[in-house]
Amino acid sequence: MMRAWILPTLLVLSGSAIATGLISKGSPGTAAALLLAFLALAGVNSPLIFPRSIGALEAQRRSAADGRPVVFWRPGCKYCIRLRIRLGRSARQAHWVNIWRAPAAAAAVRAANDGNETVPTVVVAGQPHTNPDPEWVRERLSPSA
Description:
With 145 residues, the chain is α+β, with helices and mostly antiparallel strands. It has helices spanning 6-24, 28-44, 56-66, 78-87, 103-112, 134-139; strands spanning 70-73, 95-98, 121-124, 127-130. The protein is 50% helix and 11% strand. The chain has a four-stranded mixed sheet. The radius of gyration is 18 Å and the shape is elongated. The mean pLDDT is 87.
């Protein structure tokens, strides 16, 4: 879990250092805009936004055992962020797989989407659903999880 915080921390520290340099050079507006961009990137890559990702095979195994959906996503995807935010706390009941970290997951997404890596792709009972409505996904989450 500690490794999940490395990139967001580096983004915040880098953005802060660059913004400090810009402020000292008399560009506070540019510094603020750049710092906000770095903070947004850190937030998108933060484990606070997305539950910890697991491998595609592990997610499929767990889904077969507990019936919960598998959500294939990637960092920076605005539709993935929308799904995650709209699911709220119930998002942790799904099995999240980052396709950029799991080649088998990227292959599964391409197979479900005519060769495209379109995310979020949510697999429920073995059936893929591309960019489904968050309320539809919420209805398929296990209430006991």
